[in-house]
């Protein structure tokens, strides 16, 4: 009997142990499941937060890119407005570099290592900075263009444009018609992208007193501006004549086949540099027979010409008329203000 009780008790203990073991496994499994669920929730939360962070970061970067593009557009506009000056500066620097190489670098190279200098090198330098060299002509063309662009301020350019297409009477009639226009007509005219001469005359809100002074002022201003236009046209003709002479001088030197060696070239370059260092020898006023103006001559262009009798008379006449036109035009405007 005792044996049966002991057997049953041992079996009961084993059963209890087995049940407790299964319960522990079940609890452990539940814990793992809960832990995995929490890990999954945390991962999804982190992933969502990271996605939101990336979205916000993308928006910030897009805004930053947009701002940088706006700044870049502004810089580009400024750069485009200075493009002519920059290109002129670049061409001047290139011209100076090539000229220094031609008259300083090559002679020094001939002196130290003559075997490295060949006729082709000298010819290339001549074709670059010679009388009709590519860089010299480019520099002269840009210099003439700047002079022509700067002869008149933009308001005088506008008047000359109107004078080219309209008579004085037509300009006065258009300006007076603009005094009675409505706001709607003004807005419509302001949207005109072509900006015709009629719009340029009628659109500004001029006072009646100013327009009433036109009949007496316009003829005088027209006369001076037309003379200035003709002077600029003569200047362009002189420029073309100058280029033609430079081309002929360049071709003559090339066609004559002067019998000089690279050592002769070096000696000539040395003498040219030495003379260039002396202002009194290669001074442009002395070379072209131009008399320097004195400080007391600032307002006396007619009796104290900068040109001597040896200088072409048409150039002196052109300069005097140009200065006279400017003075008379400003005096006329000042008188009727």
From TrEMBL:
Compositionally skewed regions (Low complexity) per UniProt = 1-11
Which keywords appear in this protein's UniProt record, sorted alphabetically?
Answer: Coiled coil
Q: Which residues form a coiled coil?
A: 44-78
Report which superkingdom the organism of origin falls in.
Eukaryota
Task: Output the SUPFAM superfamilies linked to this UniProt entry.
Answer: Leucine zipper domain (SSF57959)
Gene3D superfamilies xref list: 1.20.5.170
Composition skew (Basic and acidic residues), residue ranges? 12-37
Recorded GO molecular functions are: DNA-binding transcription factor activity
* Region annotated Disordered, chain positions: 1-41
Please tell me whether the keyword Coiled coil is annotated for this protein: yes
Protein name per UniProt: BZIP domain-containing protein
Native source organism of the sequence: Euplotes crassus
């Amino acid at each position: 009997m005792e044996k049966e009780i002991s057997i049953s008790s041992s079996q009961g203990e084993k059963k209890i142990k087995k049940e407790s073991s299964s319960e522990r496994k079940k609890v452990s499994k539940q814990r793992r499941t809960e832990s995995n669920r929490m890990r999954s929730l945390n991962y999804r939360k982190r992933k969502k937060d990271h996605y939101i962070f990336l979205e916000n970061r993308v928006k910030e970067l897009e805004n930053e890119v947009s701002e940088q593009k706006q700044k870049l557009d502004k810089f580009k506009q400024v750069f485009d407005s200075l493009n002519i000056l920059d290109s002129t500066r670049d061409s001047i620097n290139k011209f100076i570099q090539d000229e220094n190489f031609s008259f300083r670098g090559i002679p020094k190279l001939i002196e130290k290592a003559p075997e490295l200098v060949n006729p082709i090198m000298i010819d290339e330098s001549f074709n670059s900075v010679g009388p009709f060299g590519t860089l010299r002509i480019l520099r002269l063309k840009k210099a003439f263009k700047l002079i022509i662009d700067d002869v008149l301020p933009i308001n005088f350019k506008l008047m000359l444009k109107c004078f080219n297409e309209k008579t004085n009477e037509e300009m006065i009639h258009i300006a007076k018609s603009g005094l009675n226009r409505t706001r709607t007509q003004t807005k419509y005219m302001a949207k005109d992208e072509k900006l015709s001469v009629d719009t340029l005359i009628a659109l500004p809100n001029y006072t009646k007193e100013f327009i009433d002074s036109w009949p007496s002022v316009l003829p005088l201003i027209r006369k001076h501006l037309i003379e200035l236009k003709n002077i600029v046209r003569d200047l362009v003709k002189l420029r073309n004549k100058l280029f033609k002479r430079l081309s002929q001088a360049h071709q003559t030197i090339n066609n004559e086949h002067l019998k000089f060696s690279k050592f002769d070239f070096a000696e000539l370059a040395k003498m040219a540099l030495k003379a260039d260092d002396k202002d009194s020898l290669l001074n442009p006023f002395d070379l072209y027979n131009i008399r320097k103006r004195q400080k007391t001559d600032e307002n006396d262009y007619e009796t104290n010409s900068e040109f001597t009798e040896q200088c072409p008379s048409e150039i002196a006449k052109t300069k005097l008329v140009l200065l006279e036109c400017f003075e008379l035009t400003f005096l006329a405007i000042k008188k009727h203000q």
